């Protein structure tokens, strides 16, 4: 049975598209068509933006408590569809169903309730002015948000954008990736059932050209994009020319540092979650594994055994740990990097080919490269597949140098008993990550799935953003009071509180930009709006 949608979700209901083209949805497991949706056009984007602008004034005028009531109903409707959502995502992008139940089915309603509750508790502030008197700090929605989401973790990333935007009083035009659209339309069904006001959320699927049109649309006030670095650069240029606020979460080539006293075998499930989760299709995964020369062969053997032991197969099976890649194009890309790794001198210890027993499906075996040098292509470029490069180092100083020898700064992890901190520059850190143990416990609350430490080192309790900028610094060094708002709160001014210890040079240097992080999407550095 296929799932076919003839209409787009605009103005709170189903709307006939302007064009006749459709987007076929192909299963990466069977290579068969499993559904379709209309392919959006520029006319459809115009219609969606008009709907969002028409809805903005009333939605923004509601109290936060009124919006929270609707968002909580929306969360309830999503929760009732959680298993269906998880199945649709797994069927479209190959995510193992056990992971999809956590990320795609479970996380969106948690996010909606979290931000709805947070927004309802926000209050205006009065604080001393920089030149005397008092300053009234208020928060208002930035306006219409253009949100573009990728295919790898579509629903979780959608709601990392959607939940804070809606709670703040923004309206949204969402462009999902063509590879994962059926889950977005199921979300639209939940929005209708929850009574979300017309035009508050609008969904128009399409490719890069449609995304570029949405980004440059004069009716958009803020852009939030998660995707490739190349596309992000283009979006950044466009928004820079328009002086339009933008949040970009782009690619990664993170380092997983195994230190000399690590018990990797005892933490192998956590290591898997930090390096190979979701078929290697997560931006913050530590696909560069740094191992001490004194234990290099031992660690390579341990990682090789891990990769060999993973269950590869149908993502809808509860026993599968590694599903197919999202598309034939993505499989070709990954296989190209594997061949490049071989030609550069890397040694494949396991994998490197398609599974022998897979008659169809876009599968690639989990692959481990040893004898990789930090300058090799596979150690520098994002592959976005189940390919690990194990790079040797002599001491911690060299490990830090190798970890920082990258164009990316998205994430990082280390395996060792906590002892010392070194100046590695990831967007977030994991230490002996607890990902896998949490993923195995479906009865546990969905909170953080890593021990993450965004820069500057301000303690957080959920998916939050650090302040974009300080209006002033008092005599004593200030550190931000975190308010967990997405940058869709672009017109928010955050206040600060004094602390007794001086700020570090790193913290002071960080005051002019914000760091956004999320439990599943990793951390990204964004220019302040």
From TrEMBL:
Presence of keyword Oxidoreductase: yes
Biased composition (Basic and acidic residues): 440-454
Coiled-coil spans in chain: none
Residues in Aldehyde dehydrogenase domain copies: 14-413
GO MF, one example: oxidoreductase activity, acting on the aldehyde or oxo group of donors, NAD or NADP as acceptor
PROSITE patterns: ALDEHYDE_DEHYDR_GLU (PS00687)
Compositional bias per record (Basic residues), positions renumbered to this chain: 414-434
UniProtKB keywords: Oxidoreductase
InterPro entries the UniProt entry points to: Ald_DH/histidinol_DH, Ald_DH_C, Ald_DH_CS_GLU, Ald_DH_N, Aldehyde_DH_dom
Keyword Oxidoreductase: yes
Region (Disordered), start-end ranges: 404-498
Family designation: Belongs to the aldehyde dehydrogenase family.
Active site: 249
Name of the featured protein: Acyl-CoA reductase
């Amino acid at each position: 049975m296929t799932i076919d949608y003839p209409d787009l979700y605009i103005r709170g209901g189903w709307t006939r598209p302007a064009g006749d083209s459709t987007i076929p949805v192909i299963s990466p497991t069977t290579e068969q068509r499993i559904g379709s949706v209309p392919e959006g056009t520029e006319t459809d984007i115009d219609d969606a933006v008009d709907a969002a602008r028409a809805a903005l004034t009333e939605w923004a005028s509601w109290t936060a408590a009124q919006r929270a009531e609707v968002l909580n109903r929306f969360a309830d409707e999503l929760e009732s569809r959680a298993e269906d959502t998880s199945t649709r995502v797994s069927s479209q992008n190959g995510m193992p169903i056990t992971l999809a139940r956590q990320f795609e089915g479970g996380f969106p309603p948690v996010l909606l309730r979290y931000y709805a509750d947070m927004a309802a508790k926000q209050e205006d502030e009065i604080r001393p002015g920089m030149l005397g008197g008092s300053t009234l700090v208020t928060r208002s929605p930035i306006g219409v948000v253009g949100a573009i989401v990728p295919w790898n973790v579509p629903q979780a990333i959608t709601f990392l954008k959607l939940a804070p935007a809606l709670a703040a009083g923004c309206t949204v035009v969402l462009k999902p990736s063509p590879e994962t659209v059926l889950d977005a339309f199921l979300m639209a069904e939940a929005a209708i059932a929850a009574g979300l006001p017309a035009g508050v959320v609008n969904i128009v699927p399409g490719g890069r050209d449609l995304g570029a049109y949405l980004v440059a649309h004069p009716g958009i006030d803020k852009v939030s994009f998660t995707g490739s670095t190349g596309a992000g650069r283009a979006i950044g240029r466009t928004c820079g020319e328009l002086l339009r606020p933008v949040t970009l979460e782009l690619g990664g080539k993170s380092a997983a540092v195994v230190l000399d006293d690590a018990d990797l075998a005892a933490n192998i499930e956590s290591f898997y979650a930090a390096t190979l989760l979701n078929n290697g299709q997560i931006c913050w995964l530590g696909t560069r594994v740094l191992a001490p020369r004194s234990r290099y062969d031992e660690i390579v053997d341990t990682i090789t055994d891990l990769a060999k032991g993973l269950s590869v197969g149908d993502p809808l099976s509860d026993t599968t740990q590694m599903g197919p890649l999202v598309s034939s194009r993505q499989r070709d890309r990954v296989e190209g990097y594997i061949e490049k790794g071989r030609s550069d001198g890397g040694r494949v210890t396991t994998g490197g080919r398609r599974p022998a027993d897979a008659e169809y499906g876009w599968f690639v075996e989990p692959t481990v490269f040893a004898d990789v040098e930090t300058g090799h292509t596979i150690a520098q470029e994002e592959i976005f597949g189940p390919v690990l490069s194990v790079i040797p180092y002599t001491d911690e100083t060299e490990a830090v140098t190798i970890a920082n020898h990258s164009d990316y700064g998205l994430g990082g992890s280390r395996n060792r008993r906590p002892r010392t901190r070194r100046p590695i520059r990831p967007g977030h850190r994991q230490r002996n990550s607890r990902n896998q143990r949490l993923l195995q416990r479906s009865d546990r609350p969905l909170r953080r799935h890593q021990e993450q430490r965004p820069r500057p080192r301000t303690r957080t309790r959920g998916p939050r953003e650090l302040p974009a900028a300080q209006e002033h610094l008092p005599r004593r060094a200030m550190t931000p009071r975190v308010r967990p708002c997405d940058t869709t709160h672009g017109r928010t001014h955050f206040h600060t509180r004094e602390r007794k210890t001086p700020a570090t040079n790193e913290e002071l240097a960080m005051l002019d930009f914000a760091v956004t992080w999320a439990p599943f999407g990793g951390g990204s550095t964004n220019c302040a709006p």
